[in-house]
Amino acid sequence: MSVILVTGGTGLVGKALQHILAIEPEGSRFGKKAGEHWVFVSSKDADLRDSAQTMALFEKHKPTHVIHLAAIVGGVYINMKRNLTFLRDNILINDNILHTSHVLGVKKVISCLSTCVFPDKVTYPLDETKIHLGPPHPSNFGYSHAKRMVDVQNRAYKEQFGCNFTSAIPTSIFGPHDNFELESAHVIPALIHKCFLAQRMCAGHSKLPISSSWPYHIENGTSFVVGGTGKPLRQFIYSHDLAKLFIWQLREYDSVEPVILSVGEEEEVSIETLTDAIVRAMDFKGEYVFDTSQAEGQFRKPASNKKLISLIGNFEFTPFQKALDETVQWFLANHARARTDKRAEV
Amino acid sequence: MSSSVILVTGGTGLVGSAIRHIIETEPAGSRFGKKPGEKWVFVSSGEGDLRDPEQTRKLFEKYKPTHVIHLAALVGGLFKNMKYKLTFLRDNILINDNVLHTSHTTGVKKVISCLSTCVFPDKVTYPLDETKIHLGLPHESNFGYAHAKRMVDVQNHAYKDQFGDNFTSAIPTNVFGPHDNFDLEGSHVIPGLIHKCYLAKKNGTPFVVMGTGKPLRQFIYSYDLAKLFIWQLREYDDVEPVILSVGEDEEVSIKQVADAIVKAMDFQGEYTFDTTKADGQFRKPASNKNLLSLMGGYEFAPFDKALDETVKWFLANYDNARTGLNGRPTGH
Questions:
Q1: What pLDDT is stored for residue A336 in this prediction?
Q2: Do A91 and B93 make contact, defined as CB atoms within 8 angstroms?
Q3: Closest-approach residue (CA) in chain B for A153
Q4: Are residues B147 and A149, on separate chains, in Cβ contact within 8 Å?
Q5: Nearest Cβ partner for B154 among A81, A87, A161
Q6: Do you find a cis peptide bond into A125, omega within 30 degrees of 0?
Q7: Where are the alpha helices (DSSP H) in chain B?
Q8: What percent of chain B has pLDDT above 70?
Q9: Mean pLDDT computed over A30-36
Q10: Number of domains making up chain A
Q11: Are B137 and A157 inside 8 Å of each other by CB?
């Protein structure tokens, strides 16, 4: 009998895990196995920055395994304003999870790093050996150092106590239940939400929002504006695919070394291709334009998934258009209750 | 005049004792002497376990420091570091977070924490300087301690960025002097050799030094380091760390160290090198250019004189020193 505790269980990835376990055939590679009890918790169940609350949570559920997804996250602007908070709170959360897991004899913990914590100056593609080769980008150095520390902690726990702690490094994730709030969202949910608003305006449903932070143009009925040139390339992984990879890592991977969980480098898409795919998925009849005066980040930051593929054997990622369609359909059906408003200030 | 309370954590250790000595012996009001209105408080683990946030808070409440020189840490020799990687990582992170966060919440005006040249990247170009701390992974053997110490620099920058706190750090090279840890199991090279030579003389056995004696090291006398800490407290307000070290031209070989100890102890017995034993890195020089340009020059105590004083102290205080043989805690 195993009890698998998923922290951050109601977020983008947590919800995807719930979905996969619910629909995959029982006993199959990514389905629920007999004797497994999955528990999905959120910050409502415990503030993981507090060691007593974390211990109480573990004592309540008695996990044998932990998939640790909970973190304080945010877009680039809030990271820059609150580097200490992002550093300290994430260190507290991670230390509480790892230390409580150790003390209570949890058999395995998978924590989450991110490709955004890699060194700023690095040769591409990124791979698992390059995480610590130099300082991270200054804009999110607090978050980055806290996440990198998880890899250090995993190794230290393994060497001193033999704990089976490891980590996953996803690239850019998208899917249902994402954060679609325009100021803090990542690129795919942001563009879906923007296209949606433009669509409503074209259909006369909404008034033009007056806000200096939203660069909407009224001329020629163009209300869907994409920041940048559209040329930068990114690797995107569908949350449902990522969930399967986490389940694989839980069941079949026992090294302390992190694994990059990503589509292949050849699956990179440009922001322009992405926008076209969103337009198709939403059946948007209007025009969109690129605002080339806006910053667009790095041209490419490819990560290699060679290690993952060599370990997992065959894995079929959901075709990008299909994954985007499903995400858009989810948003259209759920936008009234999706995360579209500003959250409380960190 | 304004008054300040300077709390020194790790106040009874090698460096803490040296700062106390300097403050008590330099002329009051001089560059390194006690200034009017200053109250210096030296605390040790007996007064509070800094791994515990509550005990740390109580300590700060008791003394109400305006400034902190944070020297306290869990330190150890090579073998302990390798065996207890998690403990060295986690306990030091707890100590440092408690000191920095309590300093922040109680409005301490300035904190100087301690890094070390041993936390620099394993693969790096020499000489070491303040820009190279994070350019790669530290050596495997002390990676728990090294990562915890590097994190202090990250924390200092984050506290400064978000809150404007005046937190900074010092990076000493190899320190030696009175009140060191002379326990043969965990000691660093100078106190280790002093203790070995003492036992060889006492027992009439050979004094054997591990390795070839050829490797070079920069050593800073604890009394000089103490003055540099006092300088940094009074005259340096940048978040960036400063290497506190003698110049690269002051490197000495292990053989020179052993020769000086033999002389200071007046050891007449057999003195050899066991060249079958490992040497460690040949050199790992650090640059003190930044320090000297900021201080406008500094006269370090001549090495032989400093070593002589340290040996004399050891001989006079053997029964009370941290030798691992008399029940006195060695800090491990």
A1: 80
A2: yes
A3: B86
A4: yes
A5: A87
A6: yes
A7: 14-25, 53-63, 78-83, 85-105, 143-163, 189-203, 222-235, 254-265, 289-295, 303-317
A8: 98
A9: 96
A10: 2
A11: no
Q: What does each C-alpha distance from B209 to B196, B254, B323 come to in angstroms?
A: 9, 9, 18
pTM for this entry: 0.91
Task: Give the pLDDT confidence score for residue A294 in this predicted structure.
Answer: 83
Q: What is the ipTM of this complex?
A: 0.91
Check residue A221 and give left, alpha or beta (phi > 0: left; psi -120 to 50: alpha): left
CATH number (domain holding residue A194): 3.90.25.10
- Asked if the structure places residue A180 within a domain, the reply is no
Q: Which of the following is catalytic: B126, B145, B159, B271?
A: B145
Question: Residue B246: which residues within 8 A CB-CB, separation 6 or more?
Answer: B173, B218, B219, B220, B224, B288, B300
Measure A156 CA to nearest chain B CA, in Å: 5
pLDDT of residue B328: 63
| A257 and A191 in a common domain | no
Bridge partners (DSSP) of residue B279 are: none
CB pair distance less than 8 Å for A84 and B143? no
- Whether residue A66 is predicted with pLDDT greater than 90 in this model: the reply is yes
Which tokens belong to A71? Answer: 């973190």
Question: Is A163 found in the same domain as A275?
Answer: no
In terms of residue numbers, what domain contains A276? Answer: 187-231+269-300+325-344
**What rounded mean pLDDT belongs to chain A?**
91
Q: Verify that A38 and A122 share a domain, yes or no.
A: yes
Alpha-carbon distance of A31 to A233, in angstroms, equals 33
pLDDT for position B119: 93
Residue A78 inside a domain? The answer is yes
Give the pLDDT band (50/70/90) at residue A182. Answer: confident
Residue B1: the pLDDT is 47
If residue B41 lies in a helix (H) or strand (E), which one and from where to where?
strand B38-42
Q: Best residue in A78, A92, A159 to probe B by mutation, most B CBs within 10 Å?
A: A159
Contacts (Cβ under 8 Å, ≥6 apart) of B308: B260, B264
Same domain, A41 and A88: yes
Residue A257 lies in a domain: yes
- One domain for residues A209 and A308: no
Taking CB atoms and an 8 Å limit, are A149 and B151 in contact across chains? yes
* Amino acid B41: pLDDT: 98
**Residue B278 DSSP SS3:** coil
Q: What is the mean pLDDT of residues B180-203?
A: 91
3-class secondary-structure state, position A7: strand
Residue A296 has a pLDDT of: 76
> Is residue B145 flagged as an active site residue?
yes
A159 vs B: CB within 8 A: yes
pLDDT band of residue A217 (cuts 50, 70, 90) is very low
Structure confidence at residue B331 (pLDDT): 53
- Which two structure tokens, joined as six digits, stand for A236? 């995107």
Average pLDDT over residues B108-117: 96
Q: Are residues A206 and A295 in the same domain?
A: yes
Candidates B143, B161, B165, B239, partner chain A, best to mutate (most A CBs within 10 A)? B161
| Alpha carbon of A131: minimum distance to chain B alpha carbons (Å) | 9
Q: Are A165 and A103 in contact (CB under 8 A)?
A: no
Residue A182 falls inside a structural domain: no
Best of A49, A86, A88, A129 to disrupt the B interface by mutation (most B CBs within 10 Å)?
Answer: A88
Task: Give the Cα separation of A33 and A1 in Å (integer).
Answer: 10
Q: What is the CATH number of the domain that holds A93?
A: 3.40.50.720
- Same domain (yes/no): A250, A278: no
Q: Is the pLDDT of residue B55 over 70?
A: yes
Same-domain check for residues A307 and A221: no
Q: What does pLDDT average to over chain B?
A: 94
φ, ψ (nearest 5 deg) of residue A146: -65, -40
Q: Chain B partners of A141 at a C-beta cutoff of 8 Å? A: 154, 157-158
Three-state DSSP at B277 gives coil
